[in-house]
Amino acid sequence: MTAIEEFKAKIKAGEVFDALTLAMSEAIELKITTWVSSSTMDFPEDEPQPGYRLRTSINLVDGKVENEIGSEFIGNSDYEAIQQLHLEQVKQGREILLKNLESLQKMFVVLTETLSELPKTSFPRLQSKPAALSSSQTE
Fold first, then answer.
1. What digits encode the pLDDT tens for the residues 68-120?
2. Residue spans per domain, the chain
């Protein structure tokens, strides 16, 4: 199950906090891959090979940025426009990621404040499960 499918399932099940937690955990990392595909290449289009791709991974929590530049792109002026496109996508992606994370944080705060104002009987799914009864308590 993909993260978006899991998120939707949690929302449908009424597990809003779990859905938001999942969304926030997924929103901290961005991976961007750019490649030029060709009908003459021997690999599937959904799996670009290392020498034929530009890949960037950004983790906002760790502050880690990893870049991979395929050997076909190095010193090849034919690919300068592709490299520029990739850099622009990384810049835009980072901005979108930060805005999405900020929006999720705001939603989480609003939801927490709203739920704290409701009577506890209004949201039984969010309460902890009662401890199992021992055999002496059930007799």
1. 999 988 888 888 899 999 999 999 988 888 888 788 888 878 877 877 776 76
2. 3-125
**Residues 94/105, Cβ–Cβ less than 8 Å:** no
DSSP-derived secondary structure for 69-124: E-TTTTT-GGGHHHHHHHHHHHHHHHHHHHHHHHHHHHHHHHHHHHHHHS-GGG-G
Both ends of the chain: CA-CA distance in Å?
A: 43
Using CB atoms within 10 Å of the CB of residue 108, give its burial: 0 to 12 exposed, 13 to 18 middle, 19+ buried.
Answer: middle
- pTM here? 0.62
Closest by CA position to 107, among listed 27, 12, 29, 31: 27
- Collapsing DSSP to helix, strand or coil, 55 comes out as strand
CA contacts within 13 A on the Cβ side of 126: 17
